[in-house]
Amino acid sequence: MQRYAGRGRPFGGLRLRTYAAACAAIAVAGISLSPVAGSAAEQSSTRRDIEPRVTNGLPAVAGDFPWYVALLFTSGSDFFQRQFCGGTVVAPKVVVTAAHCVDDLREVDVLYGTDLLDGSGTLVRSSSITVHPAWDPLASRNDIAVVKLSRSIPTAGVTLAGHDNEGSWEPGDRAKVVGFGCNNVNAGGSCLSYPHDLWRASLPLRSDSTCNGVFGGVFDPQTMLCAGTASPVGATAPDTCQGDSGGPLTTTGPGGAPILVGVVSWGYGCSVLPGVYARVATYEPWLAQFGLGDAGGGYWLAASDGGIFSFGDADFHGSTGGVPLVDPVVAMAPTPTRRGYWLAASDGGIFSFGDARFHGSTGGVSLVAPIVDMSPSPGGGGYWLAASDGGIFAFGDAEFHGSAARIALRMPIVTLASTAGGQGYWLAAADGGIFSFGDAQFFGSTGGIVLDQPVVDMAPTSDGRGYWLCAADGGVFAFGSARYHGSTGGMTLDRPIVDFTPTPTGGGYWLTARDGGVFAFGDAGYHGSTGGMVLDQPIVAAAAS
């Protein structure tokens, strides 16, 4: 039994960790399977041992799957040789694929609009690749990644499975797979040939208990699902195979629209056992950071009275504008789905709108220092509040990882940012000093540097390997993997900058001034502002839709 790397890459080797577990699980299921030929020494010398595959399917028509794309290496003799994985368009510039397809690549070519690897179709170069921060290649968990494109693909994309629609399918329902992967295997499940044309198949979705019965502890129901049938003799069942990894597993939603429920991840052989897929619904909060309308296609501005101004594709979900507040609003945070947001007041009072849920507050509690910022947990099931003395208050599923409350600070804390997995956070002081807690790493600071204006905000990169600091004059300081795209430092501003908001890809950012003026840099699009409007109260925070 083996798992395979994608076509166009070295074949992966036998994973001894899963071999015994899989054999035991398969024995319990009453299935007999023989290892694919090849010495263990040869197989263990390669880095990867994962991946699948569409075998025993039918030729597909590109027009039936306009949201399917092939991933190609950026160099090679022809499209057939360069293709190695698949992907799914979920927004004009956003493709979802498997982490193991791209975890060691800096860029790829994305091919769309064709059902042949003959040079037809259209190529788009990637602009960024983001692998899930918890991707575990040893356990094949969190096998999902996002490829951002340098320009848009003209298709509406596919709806993602999530809390709103995951109940629309059940075990036994049929799901579709499509890809350019291996379409011909021998009785043992080894690939015999690859097609030049696109293939499709229909597979039954399986329950978690069935998947666990087949794969045992190798199968993780939180991050995986499986689909297909067992065909231990003859390898005749429809399945995905080498070269199909990263491609879609879709069900049919209301009105016949496809829903992406899985990403082709791994399997043992091809057409022998059900294939295993990354469970897309689990990653709804993480995927939300990429916009999934037009990533970074809008933003909200929040005033100190809780008035909300929506621009671009940002939807208005409510405000406290016109409501008498005990203390002014100081922070705003969107939910992971961007279908709601929270506002936080300086006394720690929390106001929830849209799909934002209330998890608690410090409103009514006597605080030593005022609240200055908030940050939601990755799944939106909680949030942290930070006070100017560095005190941290955790609510819902947000865990406490430490605070600066007992540290003698030279300057007050002005902002808080959590890591991607929610297992840590950073605090930034007005002088740019950085305090790291939990799994948040220190990448540098402006502490000790003489600044023209104090730091007012910070934001981490999506990979958690860097962050930006922004000063009141719009000066931007980039650390770790954060890239500098420009600033208003040195410009004459009517009002000081109060908020820094990166785009989902980190390829740009917006700076927002107290009068609601918005300055866009890098791939951040300008969608409007309140600059020039007469506001009842100043703008204090902003957030990307």
β-strand amount: 25-35%
Give the terminus-to-terminus CA distance: 45 Å
> How many DSSP H or I helices?
6
Taking the sheet with the most strands, its summary is:
8 strands, mixed
Fold topology:
Blueprint: H1 16-28, H2 40-44, E1 58-59, E2 68-72, H3 79-82, E3 83-91, E4 94-97, H4 99-102, E5 109-112, E6 122-131, E7 145-149, E8 159-160, E9 174-179, E10 184-185, E11 191-193, E12 199-204, H5 208-215, E13 224-227, E14 248-252, E15 258-266, E16 275-279, H6 284-288, E17 298-303, E18 308-312, E19 329-334, E20 340-345, E21 350-354, E22 371-376, E23 382-387, E24 392-396, E25 413-418, E26 424-429, E27 434-438, E28 455-460, E29 466-471, E30 476-480, E31 497-502, E32 508-513, E33 518-522, E34 539-544
Parallel strand pairs: 8-15
Antiparallel strand pairs: 1-12, 2-3, 2-5, 3-4, 4-7, 5-6, 6-7, 9-12, 9-14, 10-11, 13-16, 14-15, 15-16, 17-18, 17-34, 19-20, 20-21, 22-23, 23-24, 25-26, 26-27, 28-29, 29-30, 31-32, 32-33
What can you see in these coordinates?
The chain has about 550 residues and is mainly beta. The protein has two domains: about 15-285, Trypsin-like serine proteases (Thrombin, subunit H, Beta Barrel); about 295-545, YVTN repeat-like/Quinoprotein amine dehydrogenase (Methylamine Dehydrogenase, Chain H, 7 Propeller). Helix content is about 5%, strand content about 35%. The chain contains six helices and 34 strands. The protein has helices at about 15-30, 40-45, 80, 100, 210-215, 285-290; strands at about 60, 70, 85-90, 95, 110, 120-130, 145-150, 160, 175-180, 185, 190-195, 200-205, 225, 250, 260-265, 275-280, 300-305, 310, 330-335, 340-345, 350-355, 370-375, 380-385, 390-395, 415-420, 425-430, 435-440, 455-460, 465-470, 475-480, 495-500, 510-515, 520, 540-545. Strands 1, 8, 9, 12, 13, 14, 15 and 16 form an eight-stranded mixed beta sheet that branches. The chain has a six-stranded antiparallel β-barrel with strand order 2-3-4-7-6-5. It has a three-stranded antiparallel beta sheet with strand order 18-17-34, with no helix packed on it. Strand 17 and strand 18 form a beta hairpin. Helix 1 (about 15-30) crosses helix 5. The longest helix is centred in the N-terminal third of the chain and has 13 residues, at about 15-30. The two termini are about 45 Å apart.
